[in-house]
Amino acid sequence: MGKGQRAVQAFRSTEFIEKPRDQEGLVLGGNPFKDAPSTSASLLSKKSTVLSEKSASPAVVPTVSNEVIEAGLKDEPSELESVPTFILVTTYLSFLMLILFAHARDFVGKLVNPEQYVQLREQNGYAPMVSDFESLWTRRLYGRIRDCFNRPITGVAGGRVNLLERVSHDFNTTFEFTGRIRNVLNLASYNYLGFAQSHGPCADKVEEAMREHGITQASSRVEAGRSKLLVETEDMVARFMGTESALIVSMGYATNALNIPSLVSKGCLIISDELNHSSLVSGARLSGAAIRVFRHNNARDLEKQLRHSISQGQPRTHRPWKKIIVVVEGLYSMEGEFCKLPEIIELRRKYGFYLFVDEAHSVGALGKRGRGICDHFNVDPREVDILMGTFTKSFGAAGGYIAGSKALIDYLRLHSHSAVYAEAMSVPVLAQVSSSMRMIMGEDREHALEGQQRLDQLALNSRYFARRLAEMGFMTMGDPGSPVIPLLLFSPAKIPAFSRECLKRNIAVVVVSYPATPIITGRVRFCISASHTREDLDHALEQISDIGDLLMLKFHKDKVQPQHLKAE
Fold this sequence. Notes:
Elements: H1 3-12, H2 41-44, H3 48-55, H4 66-72, H5 85-112, H6 136-141, E1 153-154, E2 160-167, E3 176-186, H7 201-213, H8 221-225, H9 228-241, E4 245-249, H10 252-257, H11 260-263, E5 269-273, H12 278-287, E6 290-294, H13 299-312, E7 324-329, E8 331-332, E9 337-338, H14 341-351, E10 354-358, H15 373-376, E11 386-390, E12 400-404, H16 406-415, H17 417-420, H18 427-441, H19 450-472, E13 484-488, H20 494-504, E14 507-508, E15 510-512, E16 523-527, H21 534-551, H22 557-567
Helix pairs in contact: 1-3, 7-18, 9-18, 13-14, 18-19, 19-21, 20-21
């Protein structure tokens, strides 16, 4: 069998490629990954003439490249636009009224029903664990909308998810299950490439690995947890990221929180973006290093901090810093924005600091080859000293990794608490990571092209969804192509209302408010996946449009409506 014929058969073995698409390249009908064959045995048995005829048809095998995406999708929503003054004033007034009423209820409650506030008062000479003022937000504001968060599910959180229905009869203090299960469209979970599946090639590889290697290593990697599968997966991660070596950690949060203290200590300086994830903040605080913050994604302010820090040195002694490390994220998940990596790289060349990039949300989701923010900006990964990422968002797994030079990784293997004390990653998770990564890299012969198709489909879905929201008049945030699309809600009353209205229409979403975001920019965060079809997105957009009319969220409707009507 010649190379061409083998390529045709490998091409046909990917069921995703055969799905019919519309003129914008979006998959039509059904879950594009639901019926993917676990092996290509049935496809390889077909006659080569039939394979050749079908593969020659351009209608059957559409190819989508990033160049096509850039050329075909021009009308992208801009970054965060200026907020109308009326919206700002009413949002501040709404929060002010909520806080005033909360304090008034506490004041009256302590007089009328003091036994309910015992835990907030001094007892037997001991101060309360939490003061009434510190817990006010949790008790009086968050408690009222608890039904919008932590909703229990069952099964795999794929393009659709099974939600366990629950009700509360005491204003969200407690919940009880009704026994009913609702199948809802999932716009809330990080499943960028659609690898969250209980069937298909990755699930088959996981099952094979468990039969061969068992379930877990039951030890840290420095004792008995270092296995052949772990070493092979780390080598694959290094090749995928374009670095010399990589270290895998069994928990994504710990990848930052436990490795940053191994890199810097007292006498070092961490310059962090003000919107960095809490795991980065925890790691920075645990390290004992000095911490300074620069304005979000502002290279000019970062340079200002660098010049001041280098010229002044350490506090009091003015000695030079032992190390200066700049910490940023590749894709900021609350804002849907990419970090300005090229500008930061230029500053690194100029000032000689170390650069730590958290690619938890960008790896697998950005770039022509899914290699993350470096791939997106065509930056050499060797220009970044420490590349961190997780396997939860794009690979359908768990845990994280640190990628960099061999000297760096060898040092972390001996000094990082995540390697010395934490358990080694379990066999099923390692198998899921390696199988999905091999598919993205095109090294899975039976599904050689499915990985690239998932990358292209995610890019198309993300741009289509964001553009349609902007055309409807919603105020959105983020950069074009981001799989996380925040839609601004502002008013605290509209935050739970939007979530509940979506659930009524069988759509699962995530709403976010203060203190996770600035107080005036409460938002709903849509997480787009390659497993979403055109019908899924259009249905969601139709329902979101109705909710936007109901809650008066289309702040730019007058600006975009004439163009939108003309386009239709």
